Amino acid sequence: MIMKKTILFLTLSLIITAAAAQNKAQRFAVKSGYVEYELSGNTTGTKSIWWDDFGAKSRTEENSLNVTRMLSIQSETKTHTITIVDGNKYWTANLLEKTGQTGSVPSWLGEYNYENLSEAERRQMEKEILDAFGGRIVGKENVLGHECEIVEVMGAKSWIHNGVALKTEAKLMGITIKETAVKFDKNIRVPASRFEPPAGFKYENMDEVQSLYYGNGYEEWMDEDDDEEIVPVNYPFNKFRDVANSLNHKGFKSLMIVSSKGQHIASYLSGGETLSIIATSSRNTAGHEDFDGFESFTRNGRKYYYGAVEDETGTALMEEYNRHEMYIIYLAIPSRTKDELLEIAGKLKF
């Protein structure tokens, strides 16, 4: 079902973002280095990253305190963790709870190989990744004496030097995150011992945990629908991105705009709680079974389908675009009414 694939793709995109934030499978355009960050905002403390082989090996240590307030209730969470990545394996040790986890880094998080690329090729790859996530370069500024490009993507702003974020600021759902480098050494010799998992921990195998949920394995579960061919849409991604970026609707904040297998997806948050997705699907990919149980109607000469998604966590509006032989899908989690989704659709000119 196209609805399932749309939700799944967005979930994966958010997983990719979260995993990168946790420093699993980071990639840098600098062969080796060390960065020490000061954390501020809702989370205060320090974070340090050592890496080699352009990030194929890394060690991240975070010692922080997170404070959140909701109404009159304040909660505090202390964190002291060490995460080691070595190739396609990772280990995370919780020094406060004396617990550990280990597992495999999914292949789709570690597919970038800087080592064999020229400087021009690295720059082109970084541009393509930035474009894919709907990001943009908004200026330049020095951090610790290093010239950085200021990049805005997914509601966050980062100061990037050769693929290394020396400063990051983000505010989402009332949470403020700031990471500022106070020390940066590049192309240094990092001892191999830095990339050894901390001793004295019993590491729970997360691959085994994943198999409990996904049967034959996560990546096989991901491919279970691949027998059903996904036909790329006949609509340029750059045009889709421009239209999606133009949306001005009741406090919507863009999370990401991406393209995969020829289908384009934009996601937004509203009020920090409502998730909305706008996606394309080729008419050769979405079949009539995708409209089972949907109300069909025509408005302004265009055919629409409206109904609940298969797990009933939200609602969707599917709009036919015969000129491009595709559908535009408007998905809201939790549910929005037909009129609310039509109002959103009316503001976008694909």
> Helices and strands: which structural class?
alpha+beta
Q: Output mean pLDDT.
A: 78
The run of helices and strands is HEEEEEEHEEEEEEHHHEEEEEEEH
Number of domains: 2
User: Which fold does the CATH topology of the largest domain refer to?
Assistant: outer membrane lipoprotein receptor (LolB), chain A
Query: Helical element count?
Result: 6
Short description:
By secondary structure, the protein is an alpha+beta fold. It has six helices and 19 strands.
Give a verbal description of the structure.
- The strands form two sheets. This protein has a twelve-stranded mixed beta sheet. A seven-stranded antiparallel beta sheet has the order 13-14-15-19-18-17-16, with helices on both faces.
- The protein contains six helices and 19 strands.
- The protein folds into two domains: 199 residues, Lipoprotein localisation LolA/LolB/LppX (outer membrane lipoprotein receptor (LolB), chain A, Clam); 110 residues, Sandwich (Jelly Rolls).
- With 350 residues, the protein is an alpha+beta fold.
